[in-house]
Write a sequence for this structure.
């Protein structure tokens, strides 16, 4: 699980749920069958950069043929999804000792609400680093000044560090127009950043008025932009130049405010331009400054942290792990520390035993992309899960946690080992909670751990000195079967008794496998799937039944838990659609 110990996974970004109106033109079920069945893997564009192609595949960034793609990357080259910026910031600052426990976080960004929505860089930075000291006002400048920074920096923990995110913002519309944004509840696009654009328009209209004590922040913006008005107006792209000019003004003001008088700790400054993107894409950030300094050490430039370099690959090109290491998605996920380095024992054991594994975030984004085409949304779908109740499966950032956040409340169907012990009666009760003409979604499967040194079934739990087993229940059933110890206690231990019987039936197959623990976990999955398929039905109504099954893999810190998708199906009373290709990494 992505626990506090493995902080890199503590700020998952959920997909944007489509509005009901956006699903009005959803494909009919027959068209979904024809157009999606086994074909969703074809939407990967390998002709653009790795970060851009994988982000587009996940649905968090526009594909190359979208109008916003050209506008984004031609006007703000180097822009990255907010989650990428966060993860690379964490990786770069970790070597200097920064953690959420010893670092205070401030941001000098525009208070426009579209900069502070769930998933935006400002929001996920605050979620990871902790409470935020807001330093900025309209346009993003640090109007709190030197006094404000002094107050903020004196809140630092003993010998701790200070981190500041800063910069203006600008929107890009669905047609690629700079400075335009379609806000929720408004029929027409409005401006963003409205303050910067209003200041520019005022400067273009004539002389800047003297200070207005009731509009000090806007007065400052107009004064700064008026000093560069001729340059902005003469540029090939005035709006692009306008926002880079606004950034330079914000940076100049910030550098005058900050100092190292709070103590020996580091000061980290991350500056750039936040770019508000149209739905369903995540906001982007164009990093322009990333540096670290202290009272005893001059500034060190960290901007290289945002330059992608593919990791080393394995020499054995025939193994499952080598095939996985060669995939662009896995190389990028490794760079982001979502998964271990591709040459590590952990990565090799993971993909040797569980080929096709993806980070939980990737599974969530890819599965919801496919389901959106059916009109399946959180507001018309109930969610249940049949997974093992082990706490490491339900930590922040785990797939089960993110699925509950995205889909809403959860009906727990599973017990130890992940099987749906609630049975037919439990599913009947759950499915009768479905909205009228709505849908039922179930995540299911067992779990297994992989240790840092590549041991399958071993996990380092918080507060424990030694590795322990995971899944403990499945391993206990296997060990009993190997020892020839009969386990039959349906009265007081019915779940473990069921697990033992399922494992004992396949004992010879498990022991003959190259990786017995992996084979054991796949036997547990097959048993869970068989049991689930025996209890589900479509008696609740005309809506879809969505079954997403696989093996959840608990990873060592700082990596996110992974998931090996093995079953992804949408069905109604008449037909089913296989969406597994949607979860094949590229």
């Amino acid at each position: 699980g992505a626990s506090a110990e493995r902080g890199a996974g503590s700020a998952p970004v959920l997909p944007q749920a489509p509005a009901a109106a956006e699903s009005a033109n959803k494909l009919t079920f027959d068209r979904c069958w024809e157009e999606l069945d086994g074909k969703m893997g074809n939407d990967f564009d390998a002709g653009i950069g790795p970060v851009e192609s994988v982000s587009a595949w996940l649905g968090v960034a526009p594909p190359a043929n979208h109008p916003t793609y050209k506008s984004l990357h031609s006007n703000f080259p180097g822009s990255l999804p907010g989650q990428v910026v966060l993860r690379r910031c964490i990786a770069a600052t970790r070597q200097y000792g920064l953690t959420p426990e010893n670092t205070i976080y401030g941001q000098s960004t525009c208070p426009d609400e579209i900069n502070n929505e769930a998933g935006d860089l400002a929001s996920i930075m605050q979620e990871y680093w902790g409470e935020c000291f807001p330093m900025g006002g309209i346009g993003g400048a640090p109007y709190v000044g030197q006094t404000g920074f002094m107050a903020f920096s004196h809140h630092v923990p003993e010998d701790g560090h200070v981190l500041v995110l800063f910069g203006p913002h600008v929107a890009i519309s669905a047609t690629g127009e700079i400075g335009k944004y379609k806000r929720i509840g408004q029929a027409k696009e409005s401006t963003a950043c409205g303050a910067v654009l209003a200041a520019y328009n005022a400067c273009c209209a004539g002389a800047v008025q003297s200070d207005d004590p009731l509009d000090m922040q806007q007065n400052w913006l107009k004064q700064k932009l008026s000093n560069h008005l001729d340059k902005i107006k003469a540029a090939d792209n005035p709006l692009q130049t306008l926002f880079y000019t606004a950034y330079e003004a914000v940076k100049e003001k910030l550098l005058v405010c900050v100092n190292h008088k709070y103590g020996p700790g580091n000061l980290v400054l991350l500056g750039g331009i936040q770019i508000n993107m149209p739905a369903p894409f995540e906001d982007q950030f164009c990093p322009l400054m990333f540096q670290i300094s202290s009272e005893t050490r001059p500034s060190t430039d960290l901007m290289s942290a945002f330059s992608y370099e593919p990791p080393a690959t394995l020499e054995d090109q025939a193994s499952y792990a080598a095939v996985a290491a060669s995939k662009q998605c896995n190389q990028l996920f490794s760079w982001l520390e979502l998964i271990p380095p591709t040459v590590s024992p952990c990565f090799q054991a993971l993909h040797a035993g569980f080929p096709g594994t993806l980070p939980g975030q990737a599974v969530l984004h890819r599965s919801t992309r496919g389901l959106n085409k059916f009109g399946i949304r959180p507001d018309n779908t109930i969610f249940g899960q049949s997974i093992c109740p082990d706490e490491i499966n339900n930590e922040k950032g785990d797939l089960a946690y993110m699925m509950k956040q995205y889909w809403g409340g959860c009906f727990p169907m599973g017990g130890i080992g992940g099987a749906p012990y609630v049975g037919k009666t439990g599913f009947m009760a759950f499915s009768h909670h479905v909205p009228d003409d709505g849908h039922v979604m179930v995540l299911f499967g067992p779990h297994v751990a992989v240790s840092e040194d590549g041991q399958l079934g071993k996990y380092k739990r918080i507060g424990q000195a030694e590795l322990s087993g995971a899944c403990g229940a499945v391993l206990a059933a296997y060990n009993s079967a190997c020892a020839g110890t009969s386990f039959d206690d349906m009265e007081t231990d019915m779940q473990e008794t069921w697990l033992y019987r399922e494992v004992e039936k396949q004992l010879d197959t498990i022991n003959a496998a190259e990786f017995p623990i992996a084979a054991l976990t796949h036997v547990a999955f097959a048993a869970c799937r068989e049991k689930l398929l025996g209890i589900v039905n479509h008696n609740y109504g005309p809506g879809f039944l969505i079954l997403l099954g696989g093996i959840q893999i608990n990873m060592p810190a700082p990596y996110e838990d992974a998931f090996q998708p093995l079953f992804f199906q949408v069905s109604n009373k008449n037909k089913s659609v296989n969406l597994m290709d949607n979860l094949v990494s590229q």
